[in-house]
Model the fold of this input.
Amino acid sequence: MNLVFSPPPSVTVPVAGSNDAFPVRRIYCVGRNYAAHAREMGFDPDREPPFFFCKPADAIVYVAPGTTGQFPYPAQTENCHYEMELVAAIGLGGRDIAPDDALEHVFGYALGLDMTRRDLQMEMRKMGRPWDIGKAFDHSAPIGPIHRAAQIGHPLQGTIWLEVNGQTVQRADIAQLIWPVAETVAYLSHFFELVPGDLIYTGTPEGVGPVIKGDTMHGGIEGLGEFRLDVV
Ligand code: MN
Done:
C-alpha cells in the first residue's frame, strides 16, 4: 500500500554531548506541581493527586545551547504565558511502575517551557472544557538538549529560574516539586503505558506571566545549563 502523502518528519531532541537524538513519542505535562504556583492560580496546594494534560510531539521547539531560539507568538491570544519546567525523558517503558523503580525509567532531563495561552486556558477551565486550545498549540513546547541521567544523575534539587528581558520572573528549586519525578512517573504509568520517547513536563514554579513579541526568555536549571528564546 502507498501512503497518500509523505508522513510528517519524526520529532527528535538532541542528546547533550553526543551526536545522538531522542525520538519523541508523546508529551505529558503535570499541572500545579509547585505549591506557590498552585496558590497563584487560585488553588489550595494540599497535595491532591497530580493531574496531566498533553501536548502534541510536534509542538517541540528545540533550542540548541549557545543559540537563541524562536518562539512564534501564537494566534488567538492576548495573554501568552511562560512556564519554566524540568522535563523528564522516558527511556524505558512500563505500566504500574513503583515509585522506587521509577527513576530507572528516566533516560534523562532537559529544560522546557510549557507555553500557555492563559486567556484561553482560563476560559476553558471556567466552562469545564478541555485545555487543549490553551496548552497544546503549535510551538508550545520549547526544549533544550536532553542530558543523560547516566552522565548527570537524577537531579532532585537545584535552582530553576527564568528571566524575561533580563528581569528574574521565576526562581525556585526543583526540590519543591509537590510530586517529584519518581512519583510523577509512577502515578502517570497507572493511566498510560509509558513508552521510550515520552517526555514529561513536570510543572512550573510560581511567577508565571505574559510575554509579548520582542521579548527574550532566558532560563535554566542547575546542572542542565540554560537556554534562550526570542518571542517573534
Ligand atoms: Mn505547566
